Amino acid sequence: KYPTECKEWKQVSQSYNVPHVMRGIHRSLYTKVVTCMQGSCYDFVVDLREESPTYLQWACVKLSDKNRRQMYIPPRCGHGFLSLEEGAMILYLQEGTFDPPNELDFHWKDDAIGIKWNEPENLIVSAKDKIAPTVEKRFGSIPYKNDSKRVLVIGASGQLGTALCKLWKGSVGTYSTVSGASHCLIHYDLQTATDDDAEWLMEAVRPDILCVCGGFTWVDGCERDPEKAMAVNCHGPAKLAKLASTKFNAKTVFYSTDYVFDGSKGAPYTEADPVCPMNAYGRSKLEGEKAIMAAAPDALIIRTSVVYGPDPQKKNFACQMLRAKHAGETKKVPTDQIACPSYLVDLAQMTKLMMDKDAKGIYNVVGSEVLGRLDFAEKIAPGIGVGFLTTDVKLPTPRPLYCALDNSKAKAFLGDAFQMRGVADALADWAPTKEDVEK
């Protein structure tokens, strides 16, 4: 869909720059590959293709003679750069030749695009770039204006990440597995990413808010591979949170779990209750909470539970129950595992509202009903469940039985704006069809 190979270079151009020169945003009908042959610069690409799913989104990469990175500029995408030192030499390989009638320029500070140039006080801008028109003046209208906050969503191919990206217009998301691959997302693996990878991602996006909803949530898988659980649920997120706090002045949101508790209280847990995870998944999330707060003391930690709703990968519990119902099957479901199922559309909305009010610290945000897993299944797909007691079977991983969470703190913080619907209202809003849950 988007060309990645160039057949022939028809023009090679070069520019020599003193520090703090800003050039752009310039759009051509042909491919460009940009290299910084000497010195360094921040290089920017902007999607100006009106039919593109990433229209008006941008990314930044630091190019230098040391890192030897290059920037690929697709046809009809905008380009700009900010030189960082004396003698920054920028080389362009072009698939077409300069064609004045078809070359368009756009204002470098256009709010519809919202590039974070981080420009110095002594910025040098050409007279032509200073008076370049906005996207709206060029094209007549724009479909939406990007949110004033630039949001980086780690795990945007998952169910909650998808909801967050829909809510925050112009957000940038990542995926980590082949099943989540998309030309709209950036590949980033919390397990294997190095410090350089983390800095590259944060520099490319320059977020105001970092939302880490990607994680290793397969409870039995975490028990089998606790090192992976710690890498994905603790060390990887903390690495990004530290950069967000110390270098990019960005707030972090980290999603945790009711499994930080052992279920022995017998009543809904508050944020102040002692934690005591009983499996590797819960331990990795708890260590993630601690590492995030150490790296970014103003971070927001949201503990949630049994997240369900529209799922692009169709993996959550509700999708499984509905899929079985359509197939005429029944499912064995525990009666004694009790929690608060959380509708992901509401969870995403509460996240945004809490960030709008600069929430920090740990908050429980879960659905309004305390339900056993069988009761939850029956509300989703009546007649689907065959109940059993967890204590009567040998599970590969121990699980807490009573993990309801108390929403009182979040309710007090948001007041009447707090809304986490029960299952019936959530299903009415979601209205899933057979196609929505079939793989």
From TrEMBL:
GO BP annotation list: S-adenosylmethionine biosynthetic process
| One Pfam family hit | RmlD_sub_bind
- Top-level taxon in the UniProt lineage: Eukaryota
In alphabetical order, the GO MF annotations are: dTDP-4-dehydrorhamnose 3,5-epimerase activity
InterPro entries recorded: dTDP_dehydrorham_reduct (IPR005913), NAD(P)-bd_dom_sf (IPR036291), RmlC-like (IPR000888), RmlC-like_jellyroll (IPR014710), RmlC_Cupin_sf (IPR011051), RmlD-like-bd (IPR029903)
All copies of the RmlD-like substrate binding domain together span: 150-415
PANTHER family in UniProt? DTDP-4-DEHYDRORHAMNOSE REDUCTASE (PTHR10491), METHIONINE ADENOSYLTRANSFERASE 2 SUBUNIT BETA (PTHR10491:SF4)
Q: What is this protein called?
A: RmlD-like substrate binding domain-containing protein
**Species in which this protein is naturally found:** Cyclophora tenuis (Marine diatom)
